[in-house]
Amino acid sequence: MYEGRIKFIVAVFIFLLCITAARLVNLQLVHCEATRDQISRTGVKSARVLPTVRGSITDRFGEKLAVDSPVFQLMIRYELSRLLDERFWLANAIVRSEDKGIGLEEAREYWENQLASDIELLDTILEYAEKFSPASLEEIKQEISQINDRMWRLRRYFAWRRNFPNSSSISDFDSLPQRERLAKEAFVNDLWEMKNKWFAVADISQDKIYHAQNTLSSNPEVKISTRGRRKYPYGKTASQIIGWVNPSQPDKELFKNDELIRYKEKEVAGFAGTERICEPFLRGRRGKIVYTKRDRPPKEKAREFGDNVRLTLDIKLQEKIEKLLKDPLRNPNSDKICNAVVIDARNSEILAAVSQPGFNLQNARQNYNQIISDPNKPSVNKAFEKLYPPGSTIKPLILAAALEEGEVGIDETISCSLPADENWPRCWLQRLGSCHDYQFEGEGGNNGRNAIRGSCNVYFTKAAHRLEPRKLQKHLFAAGFGREILCPIDFSLVGWKVENMPSEDRNLPESRGIIWSGYNTPEGTSFEGIPPLSNGEKRWFGMGQGNLRVSLLQIANLYASIARGGVFERPVIYSNISEPLRKQDLGWSEATVKNVEKGLWMVVNKIHGTAYKQFKGSELMELDVEIYGKTGSTQNPENALFAGYIEAENSTVAIAVIVEGGQSGARDGAPLGRELFKVIEECGYFD
């Protein structure tokens, strides 16, 4: 009997041994490769992603306007920051006083004794923070106060949810007596943010980072963190053009199909201005390190830094102009909104585009609601986007159109004598009991160039009225009015393929203006889609009034076109990513160009020119340059303008400036234009 049992046990043992052997053979022969791979992966680190590096925005000379810079920050935990929160002390004192049946003062004293070492540590940290940071102690405490406010909002929320689980409104919790509320909030002390999260208290001066690290690094409750931050060294200067970044990522769909470009949570992206417009260029591609086997080096996909975007702006010139417009000693209208555009007429590059008021890019994210609700609209680039009647600054174009269409002759005069024709605009001299016939008697009379010189409304309203409406519109459109004119960005230059690439009209916002009757904006960009101009409104267009609306950029570009001898070019704002310049000869004859230029020269340089008194005796007149200009005044709305250009040996610079609420182009616009030319000269453009 025993022998049979032994044989049975041996048989079972042999059977199990065979199964084990078969399994071993299967592992060796069938799953060998997979098993080895699995074993080889054991202990291999997971892939590490390298952060993106955003490209910089620079001015024409390489000056950094927006740049990612390392920031060193002193970080503490909430367990320390709470010690500066009076709510923390009161709440915990209430809990202990009720638990032990003692007074609040005694209860508070207990907690102060319990946390004495932490209080001493916090005092030490604050002392060092003030020593190593550019911020004052008051500013550092304000940062800590904001941390405590955020954390107490969490306490309040969780106290509500835990004590009123079926409540739909936190007002149920707020209706409790304050003492009871604080006691319940004090019991919320188990949140992850309270134990593990670090909070930034202050930036550390870069020149003191070494000492700060040596002094503070040994303390487990404090650390110094290094991270990248977008910095805007020029603050308010050119703020509407540069723009800023924000974690909201308005273009997040742009890169959604690329693992190494698409946005991660809390990553910043361009939100406004150039930062957003040029996001495909500025955004970098993340790198990635993939660890394989322990005996092999990791595979690395290198980061691709974002491309730099170079503006045509001269940031120093822009800064000087912004200061000029606010300086009451140089600009008597500094209390009014003044805007300006400066263009290098040789290559159509925008040197400055000033829009008031601006805003500080360094804190734009924090002050966003304040910025967009400001009635003065600081976020709007008024130099490009706001529309104005051009007033008399449009008259050189009206003269050129009338000459080219044969509606007036080079030396033909149009009488400005009294009395004024019924239902026609009066010339400003007629309101003074005089006329341009008398003023220019002996100098050819009230011909086209003298009419520019004296800004005669009668001449230009009648010259415009002689033109067929469509022909007048055609000349306005060819010169850049009634359409967007900024040179497009060449998105084919982006260093990697991006799906859903923005179309070529992605550019800084600008207004096309109005060169038709009515205010309906037409679809499309061609001249054929422009609505008609009524025959009765042509006369008002001749003096830059009526329904005619233009941007300051368009006015400055008109004068750059005149300086080029009647050649239109689209103005450029991005020097390294713009499409090739699109030139268009306006078809003006040499005689037309000379006649228009002569009139603009006399405005500044001859008696009875509307800007003559403002430029006479100026140091500008002693330079080896030629100055051309035109004043402009408008009503409904009331503004004062000046536009013109200076020709020097190696440069030609065109300008347009406006004083919103200014009463006279001669008295308000011309002096500001003169000072603007001086600033340009100070920056070396006429050397």
Automatic annotation (TrEMBL):
One of its GO terms (cellular component) is plasma membrane. It is found in: Membrane. Keywords: Antibiotic resistance, Carboxypeptidase, Hydrolase, Membrane, Protease, Signal. One of its GO terms (molecular function) is penicillin binding. It is an enzyme of class 3 (hydrolase). One of its GO terms (biological process) is cell wall organization. Residues 53-293 form the Penicillin-binding protein dimerisation domain. Its EC number is 3.5.2.6. It catalyses: a beta-lactam + H2O = a substituted beta-amino acid. Residues 340-676 form the Penicillin-binding protein transpeptidase domain. It holds the Pfam family PBP_dimer. The keyword Membrane applies. Gene3D superfamilies: DD-peptidase/beta-lactamase superfamily, Penicillin-binding protein 2a (Domain 2). Belongs to the class-D beta-lactamase family. This is beta-lactamase. It comes from Sedimentisphaera salicampi.
